[in-house]
């Protein structure tokens, strides 16, 4: 599951879309957000965690997969190839690779230690998240709805690499608006995008 293994796997599976994983930290010891980044569309979602432990991450990703299944979607169909860092929170590999019935649906690989450039796309997209939620901000008062709102606005930002289309536009075109909604992301009109901490004031008002 090393990064070299990942490169070899990609050579043999060039058609598989890549999804990168990471965690962003709020207050030390507080709630954490698991980020899931669909590289081809620059589309990112977040799952709120109570803490940064392998058990919490595994439980939340399993619940997430069950919810998707109840809505008629399979995690492995949209995230067949996973790449993340070697943080301990990702140590329960089977939670990510197996579907709710225990069958393999995804393949997960790990970057080399201290090598964020190997998943540069998700690292770059975190800067859009931090425009709204500056480093050091506690997530303890956040709900999953708060996280979904933040990433709905992040995904609504127009992207130069997509000739002015947003990540939401690209993802919903490749998959569907129904799937975007199932992932917790809503369409935000361009003239209503708030890409600053003001969004949190609106959320908690």
Write structural notes for this entry.
This protein has 205 residues and is α/β, with parallel strands linked by helices. Helices cover 40% and strands 15% of the residues. A 5-stranded mixed sheet has the order 3-2-1-4-5, sandwiched between helices. The longest helix is centred in the N-terminal third of the chain and has 17 residues, at 54-70. The mean pLDDT is 95.
**Shape, per Cα inertia axes:** globular
The rounded distance between the terminal residues' Cα atoms is 45 Å
Give the spatial strand order of the biggest sheet: 3-2-1-4-5
Structural class: alpha/beta
Q: Level of helix content?
A: 25-40%
SSE pattern, N- to C-terminal: HEEEHHEHEHHHHH
Number of helices: 9
Uncertain residue segments: none
| Beta-strand fraction estimate | 5-15%
CA-based gyration radius: 16 Å
Mean pLDDT: 95
Number of strands: 5
Largest sheet: 5 strands, mixed
């Amino acid at each position: 599951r090393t990064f070299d293994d990942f490169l070899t796997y990609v050579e043999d599976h060039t058609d598989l879309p890549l999804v990168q994983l990471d965690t962003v930290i709020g207050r030390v010891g507080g709630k954490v957000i698991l980020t899931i980044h669909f590289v081809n569309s620059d589309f990112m979602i977040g799952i709120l965690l109570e803490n940064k432990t392998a058990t919490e991450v595994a439980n939340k990703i399993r619940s997430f997969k069950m919810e998707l299944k109840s809505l008629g979607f399979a995690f492995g169909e949209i995230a067949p190839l996973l790449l993340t860092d070697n943080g301990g929170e990702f140590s329960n590999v089977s939670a990510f690779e197996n579907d709710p019935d225990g069958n393999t649906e995804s393949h997960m690989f790990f970057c080399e230690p201290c090598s964020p450039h190997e998943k540069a796309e998700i690292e770059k997209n975190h800067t859009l998240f931090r425009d709204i939620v500056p480093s050091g901000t506690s997530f303890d008062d956040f709900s999953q709805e708060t996280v979904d709102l933040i990433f709905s606005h992040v995904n609504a930002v127009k992207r130069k690499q997509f000739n002015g289309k947003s990540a939401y536009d690209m993802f919903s075109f490749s998959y569907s608006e129904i799937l975007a909604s199932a992932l917790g992301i809503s369409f935000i009109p361009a003239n209503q995008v708030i890409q600053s901490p003001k969004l949190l004031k609106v959320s908690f008002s």
